[in-house]
Amino acid sequence: MKFPIFKTKIEGLNKKFDLTDPEQQKEYFKAKAGPEIEKLRKFLKKNTFVAYLLGKKNSGKGTYSKMFADVVFPERVEHFSIGDMVRAVDKELVDGQRKPKLVEFLKKYYRGRLSLDEILASLEKRDTKWLLPTELILALVKREMEKREKKTLFIDGFPRDLDQMNFSLFFRDLIGYRDDPDVFILIDVPESVIDERIRWRRVCPVCQNSRNLKLLPTPKVEFDEKKKEFYLICEKCGVRMEKKEGDEFGIEKIRERLKMDQKLMEQAISLYGIPKIFLRNSIPVDLAKEYVDDYEITPEYSFDFVNGKVVRKEKPWIVKDDEGIPSFSLLAPPVVVSLIHQLVEVLGI
Ligand SMILES: [Zn+2]
Q1: What's the mean pLDDT in 97-113?
Q2: How far, in Å, is the centroid of ligand 1 from the Cα of 203?
Q3: CA 270, CA 42: separation in Å to the nearest integer?
Q4: Burial class of 347 by CB neighbour count within 10 A (0 to 12, 13 to 18, 19+)
Q5: 20 C-alpha vs ligand 1 centroid, how far in Å?
Q6: 213: CA distance to ligand 1 center in Å?
Q7: CA of 205 to the centre of ligand 1 (A)
Q8: Distance between Cα 302 and ligand 1 center (Å)
Q9: Is it the case that residue 160 has pLDDT exceeding 80?
């Protein structure tokens, strides 16, 4: 599976933008996709669409869709996670006031092999590891779409246990549910990138803010002389950010999951009749100059402890993509620029 490389470099545009600075990020989007953003805003004032996000775990689905919403139209675009939906349904089931409404909806829309009574009984006693039947997820997603009729949705977290047959049935059913356009957004990120995102991840114990010691440090970094390690200080809470247990194994623990995510993406690619947008996170080092600007590439940070002070160093980060080609990984904004351009094309606006 090879995704096309999107060119974000514009001849004659030589200004360098600091993409970590919110103001400069705004200017950057204006410079690289200004007219397209205007077209989308105009479109979204009166119309909606539904985007189905497919990509491996930690591929940036949430990051890209939230950034897209912020840049284009925060009030009209919503990132909607099926995982969060399932957790909310669990709460609904134990709420005497809300449960009857849920049951009523399911009576109308649920079509499946198990009876509704069986489904409800298993839902009530299930632990979180137990997967919901696909038909039930389908009905629940439809209910959420109905609640958000006036919004453009980026839906994330589809059942991974779908075979080819069920996959197309699932999406054909969903796609016909609302009258607005549908689009698949497929995200390709090398596994080496996912691996390092997990290995170097640091989370704030207070606000759950997630950063990365190597790829996305906070402004303030300190050195633990006892443990001989550098650590991040959460920029919101001022406390030391921590490593989550198991993160040091990187992708080892989610290999099976990644395989299933990959299969789901391949199934989406082979499904005709729905437009597809390809987002690519990496770019071969020897093609980078032609396609992107230097400041769009993810840097790698390292630290030294000199005379009681932490000194930060920065250089371009080079990883091997899934075919072993030395590549750069793009920061989120250029990927979102390519999403904006492709959407304008797909929607024909
Ligand atoms: Zn915090």
Answers
A1: 86
A2: 8
A3: 32
A4: middle
A5: 18
A6: 15
A7: 7
A8: 22
A9: no
At 107, list the tokens.
Answer: 């009576």
Alpha carbon of residue 225 to chain centroid: 36
Distance of CA 8 to the CA centre of its chain: 20
State the average pLDDT over residues 161-189. Answer: 85
Chain centroid to CA 262? 15
Most confident of 24-28, 145-149, 178-182: 24-28
Distance 37 CA to ligand 1 centre (A): 32
60 CA → ligand 1 middle, Å: 20
The b/e string for 170-193 (b: 16+ C-beta within 10 A; e otherwise) is bbeebbebbeebbbbbbbbbbbbb
Q: How far is the CA of 317 from the centre of ligand 1 (A)?
A: 26
Using CA of residue 27, residue 315, residue 280, residue 283, what is the dihedral sign?
positive
Question: Helix, strand, or coil here: 231?
Answer: strand
Q: What is the pLDDT of residues 42-61, one digit of tens each?
A: 999 999 999 999 999 999 99
Judge contact between 210 and 339, C-beta under 8 A: no
pLDDT above 90: percentage of residues in the chain: 69
Kindly give the distance from the C-alpha atom of residue 220 to the centroid of ligand 1, in angstroms, as a whole number. Answer: 12
* 167 has a pLDDT exceeding 90: no
Residue written as tokens 């470099």?
9
pTM summary value: 0.91
pLDDT per residue as tens digits for the range 62-99:
999 999 999 999 999 999 999 889 888 888 888 889 98
Q: What 8-state DSSP symbol labels residue 321? A: -
Residue 240 tokens, joined: 């030391």
Please tell me the distance from the alpha carbon of residue 45 to that of residue 170, in angstroms, as a whole number: 29
- Are the beta carbons of 57 and 258 closer than 8 angstroms? yes
pLDDT at 112: 80
- Residue 240 Cα to ligand 1 midpoint, Å, equals 8
Cα of 196 from ligand 1 centre, angstroms: 22
